[in-house]
Amino acid sequence: MIELPYNSLMVRGKSPSCEICWRGGKLVIFITGMCTRYSDCFYCTISLKKRESDVIYVDESLVKDENDVLRESRLIEAEGAGITGGEPSLVVDRVCRYIGILKENFGKGFDIHLYTNSVGIDQSSLKKLASAGLDEIRFHTWDKEDWQKMRLALDFGFRVGAEMPVIPEKVYEKKLIELVDFLDAVGADFLNLNELEFSDGNRSELISRGYKVRDDSGIAVSSSRETAIRILKYLEEKTGILGYFCSADVKELQVLNRWRRRARNVARSYQQITDQGTLLYGVISGDLAKLLKFKQILKEERCSFEISGGELLVPPEIIVEMKSMIKSMGLKGEIVEIAPIDRYFEISRTPIVKCEL
After folding, report:
1. Nearest C-alpha neighbor of 23 from the set 266, 274, 260, 265
2. Do 13 and 122 share a domain, yes or no?
3. What domain range includes position 287?
């Protein structure tokens, strides 16, 4: 077993799709909020807003049409996509349509994996997915009868495996050991284990069951990683398949790496890209006449700026370097940090020059 950065673990290797995810190169397509098994999965992280809503999101932005997906793919310089839900197999024709669109626009090497609880998986749906060009299918089910669908999927040439949360209880640990044996017996490719996490969608359920947050994390469930270690040790000793533990820290890394990619393509001339992939810029506000006067100074200095909502948006260093001038003119100066996404998400706002407006 290999200990990877960010508290993740690996036995023999991991799926090519996981490699791309690490780099932030996977587009995340939430293909539908519909699912018949929400009541079976107390740990489901999906927000209540999305549950049972037949909507599509790409990287947390609502999708109106296929152009939204193609635009986001280009902005993050995507190398592939993961299709999730809800339960994607309930809208398999929609899934196949988007697989086709992505492959047509970005080539056959654009790696696409699908998550499923197996509800809508059968010979017919698998044939459609194979024809569309799906590369990998990940099953998430505790039901042993459903496991047989993995055997069926192997006949279509996908990379096939299971992806399961690591619930730190003996009954679930035992089931995962049984799943390891099954995957090896049928010739599946991998088992992915996800660190159990608190989210807005499952917080009350996890708390009611007595789960606690790991000491060094804000969302990871205590003892989930320790349970994963035992399962991966068994997998390493008894099977020949790949085993990978994806920690909560890695999930955060994937988002940050995706932000870094997106930031390169959306940053305005006055915005500075941080190491975290966020965008930093200065905001000057106050009396309009004084703002227009300051704008003229910026033009003469050939500084980048933008006027928006009665404010001057400038490079962050301007707020610091011209602090005295901003103050002498009775203006207010702040440095703002935002996420590089379509929805305005402010991370921090730091006052640099304070004054009475």
Report:
1. 260
2. yes
3. 268-353
In this prediction the pTM is: 0.93
CA neighbor of 76 nearest in space, from 205, 263, 221, 256: 263
Judge if 178 and 302 occupy the same domain.
no
Q: Average pLDDT for consecutive 10-residue bins of the chain (357 residues)?
A: 96 97 96 95 93 94 96 98 97 98 98 97 98 98 97 97 98 98 98 97 95 92 98 98 97 96 96 97 94 91 90 95 92 96 95 77
Q: Where are the alpha helices (DSSP H) in the chain?
A: 16-22, 66-75, 92-106, 123-132, 144-154, 170-186, 203-208, 224-238, 248-266, 288-300, 316-321, 323-328
Which CATH number fits the domain that encloses residue 334? 3.30.70.790
* Neighbouring-strand partners of residue 273: 279
Cα 105 from Cα 174, distance rounded (Å): 44
Whole-angstrom distance, CA of residue 205 vs CA of residue 199:
10
248/279 same-domain check: no
